[in-house]
Amino acid sequence: TKRIGILTSGGDCAGLNATIRAVALRARHGYGWTTVGLRSGTLGLLERPVEAVELDPDRLDAALARQGGTFLGSTNRGDPFAFPMPDGSKKDRSGEMVAGLKGLALDGLIGVGGDGSLDILRRLLAPSKVPFIGVPKTIDNDVANTERAIGYSTAVAVATEALDRLHPTGASHERVMVLEVMGRDAGHIAIAAGIAGAADVVLIPEVPWHLKVVVAHIDALRAAGRTSALVVVAEAAGQSDDPAEPDSDAPAHGVGDWLARRLSKATGAEARATVLGHVQRGAMPTAEDRLLAATFGVRAVDLLAEGKADRMVAWWNRQVIDVPLAKVVGRSRTVDKDGALVRTARALGICLGDKA
Ligand code: F6P
After folding, report:
1. Residue 76 to residue 93: CA distance in whole angstroms
2. Contact (CB, 8 A) for 221 and 171
3. Rounded distance, CA 314 to CA 85, Å?
4. Cis omega (within 30 of 0) on the bond before 324?
5. Which pLDDT tens digit goes with each residue over 142-170?
6. CB 198: neighbour CB atoms within 10 A?
7. Are 298 and 35 in contact (CB under 8 A)?
8. Known binder of ligand: residue 138?
9. How far apart are CA 235 and CA 161, in angstroms?
10. Which protein residue has the closest C-alpha to ligand 1 atom 12?
11. Is the ipTM of this complex over 0.95?
């Protein structure tokens, strides 16, 4: 019988607990294996002894599948190969982590993480010879070679609900309501929630936008009799340094507040910004995220049973597949600026800030 480990690494999101539960259930009931939950992500591998708990799937409450966060904890304080020390220096602590991992005598490890965490885990595991399978999770949905990462559906649902709530208050006060959503480098949450929540403007880093185009759009709406407007801006939309965008002095951080102030000044309308932040991460997982967690968790264990390693489970064309981790790490899947969602947004009259 085998003993496999599972850890969650990087930013939390909804659906992690459901993933852990699915792994433990599949390991026990599919193969008679034991699952060990490693606490505190990769950072936990520096503890001595490494904190690990045996997960009895029959005692894991089914309610876990409904809970946000990760009961194993998820901490990552930077790169183990250049670990930030209290004195400000950097130290390679990967050897200590590998030693911690070896001490657990695992026959395989499943790591739930985003692009950065999966890359780190893969490099850490390589010298240990412990087979490693990755499961993609991030509300940003930017992991390469998978159409879906765990947590994204929930983040979109939360952002959509926020728009549903901003609409009546914006309409009551005749205001421009700006919603800043997460997405460190990509606009997936913004474009999806913007369409689902019937926004008037969606600004994403993938489409270089111009303040004057947004202003003209809001002015046109007002001229046509609309008294309020909903604007969604991805947190990364301010980072654009595209030279084709002369009027972007948008800050890398706090783009929502900046935009509300600028729109108010330029249109004369009252504007307010809401920064949604971590509310998008801590929610109860949607049905879709729970399904993804279940199918990914089961498939990850099956891959270890098939003797596979260095692969990631992925969602592609309505199927669960697996892809080499080498094809995932170091690249990120941003919004296709000519893709279906962007075309849909344009077809609905949503302004993306690039053309009137
Ligand atoms: O990658 C997930 C994410 O939530 C991003 O959307 C966001 O930019 C970042 O993490 C926030 O990180 P932290 O929780 O460290 O503030």
Report:
1. 13
2. no
3. 35
4. no
5. 999 999 999 999 999 999 999 999 999 99
6. 13
7. no
8. yes
9. 18
10. 11
11. yes
